[in-house]
Each structure stands twice: as structure tokens, then as C-alpha cells.
Amino acid sequence: MGSLVKKPLTELSRLAKEWQDSGNYVKWTSTLEENEVYGELNVFSIQKGNPENPAILMIHGYPTMSFDFFDVVGLLSDDYYVCAIDTIGYGLSDKPRDGYIYSIEDDAKLVDYYITDILMLKEFTLLTHDKGDSVGLSLLSLYRNQDFYRISHHIITNGNIYLPLANLTRFQKMLLSEKFGQLATNFINGKLLAKGLNRKAHTIPEKADKINGVASIIDYQDGGKVQHSTIQYLNQRTKYEEKWLDNLKESEIPTTLFWGVDDRIAPVAVADYVWQTVLKDRSTEAYYWRLPNANHYLMNDNPHALNLVVRQVNGEVVEWDSLPEGERPVLLHQNPGW
């Protein structure tokens, strides 16, 4: 049996504990033969709002968790059924070690299972961020071959879905290294990661309770120790990104790119490339918005703007003037489809 830390190695912060208490756990077994020895794993999930309302499914990025969407969930849950999970190795889900294979395509199968077997959703808006963008693009392969549910709109936010244009940090490159990556995990903890993300990936600094929440959730089950393994998703992007972008090009789901312009890790050049080569001339409608004064974690820098975008793609008439000037999204391009 592979090594799996069963209990948190640090106490969760007050806000993180509230998040955990408002969610629940589902059981999941990896579909990869190499992971059979780990058996059933616990996946943290959260559902907020009335299940009778239109549904939103959110998929988080690396190295964080569904807690990233804390503010947006609060803004949407009165009118929408908002759902999210922490994929294996992240957040408040189990974080197996000692050879567990972390896989984007396995994550996509987990999300598909969550949709069909746990939530039993028939229709929803898909909202993804960072690593979650790749999970969402991989999910499109499964989506084409089923008729259980319908994705009404696909919102893709800041993520390096075309890796040649990425600006990976020295920290990311070190963790990816076969020589130094595993060694580096001995020096990683939630406080270090949370403060680094707040400094480099936010335009508007997070408040202390949010930083402490992220830090303590990363430390759940000693999450620093799996960072060399979980970041290997970047190598999977290198291998499969053309396939995943083809999924997007062939998708019949209306799609919105929504990008924080201050992002230095997944710069607007990535979104520009995806628009020009994938979305601009495809047969299904697509939109490209930029968000000023927002960074990689745009959902934290300006949750109100993301809230309005979600509402608009769901048919609501929104008041952009309710946002301060300089913080309003800019519609750069649109493709009406044909």
C-alpha cells in the first residue's frame, strides 16, 4: 500500500475550517493501473446554493484549491448552484505520495464522475483556472462521448494552456527538475507558498485571513511533500496541449476567455495565441475578455468582475458600471460562430 498521510499535520485556519465544514467528501479510485495500490481516496467537494438553480462547476489550478473561489462562490450562491472539488493532491483532498501518478486525464475522469455520479447534473457552466483549464480541455474528450449532461458555457481563466508562451517561475522549474525537485519539497510549506503567491500572482494583496487559509489548506496532509509530483502536470501539457487545444477548437460549447492582464506567469500572450489559433474562426461562438488591474488569481483580485461575467453568460443583463472605472472587463474580440 502506498504511503498516505491520514490526518492534517497542521490545524486549519478559522476560514479554512469553515470552508471544510461547509463541504463534504466523496470517494474516488484512480483509473490508472499504477495507482491501484492506493485504493479509495477522499475527494473534498463543496456545493453551495439551491440545486434547482442554474449550476456552475469550478475547477481550480496549481498549487491551490477550490478555496480560491471563496469570494466568487459567495457572490453567486444566492442565485446559482455552485459546485467545486479539490482534485487529488490538492486542497482538502487526499495527497498520496511514494509513486502516486498525478494525471490531468485522470483528473478529468474524476470531474466527469463528480458530475454524473455525485451531482447528477444535467446542465451547467464550466469555469476553470490554471491547471484546471487543462483538466477542462481534457474533459471535452469525455464530454463528446456522452449524453448525460450538457455544458452550456465554458469559461477559461488565466492558465498556461500553450506552454511555449509561459513564463514559468524559477520555483516551478526547480520543482519540475528530476535532480532537485523532490529535494526541494523538504523545504516547502503552506506559509511559504501562500505568501509567494500573494506577492507574485495577485495585483491586490489578499487579507491575512485568506493567506492563512491558503497556507493551512496547502499544509493539510503535509501538502508541500507532493509538489514535485503534482507539478508534473506541466510535462503532460507539453505532451498533450495540441490535443487539448484541438478539443477546444472542435468544441460546440460557447466559450469565453477571461484573462487578468497583470499575469506574468500565464501572460496575455497565451490568451492571444488561443484566440487567434483556436477560437477566432471556429464554428461555435466565442468571446475574449481582458480584466485590467488583475493578475493570475483574477478571481481574488476582482471577484465582482468574474461574478458578472458568469451571470452574463447565463443570460442575465449585468451592469458593468457597478464596477469602479479601471476595474471593468474589456471585451477585446468576439466570434459569433457560423
Q: Mind sketching the topology for me?
A:
Elements: H1 14-21, E1 24-29, E2 40-48, E3 55-59, H2 70-76, E4 81-85, H3 104-119, E5 123-129, H4 131-144, E6 150-157, H5 170-176, H6 181-184, H7 190-200, H8 208-219, H9 227-230, H10 233-250, E7 255-260, H11 268-279, E8 286-291, H12 298-301, H13 303-313, E9 330-335
Parallel strand pairs: 3-4, 3-5, 5-6, 6-7, 7-8
Antiparallel strand pairs: 1-2, 2-4, 8-9
What does this structure look like?
- Helix 1 crosses helix 8.
- The protein has one domain (14-335): 3-Layer(aba) Sandwich (Rossmann fold).
- The N and C termini lie far apart (53 Å).
- It contains 13 helices and nine strands.
- Helices cover 38% and strands 17% of the residues.
- The chain has helices at residues 14-21, 70-76, 104-119, 131-144, 170-176, 181-184, 190-200, 208-219, 227-230, 233-250, 268-279, 298-301, 303-313; strands at residues 24-29, 40-48, 55-59, 81-85, 123-129, 150-157, 255-260, 286-291, 330-335.
- The protein is an alpha/beta fold and 338 residues long.
- It has a nine-stranded mixed sheet, sandwiched between helices.
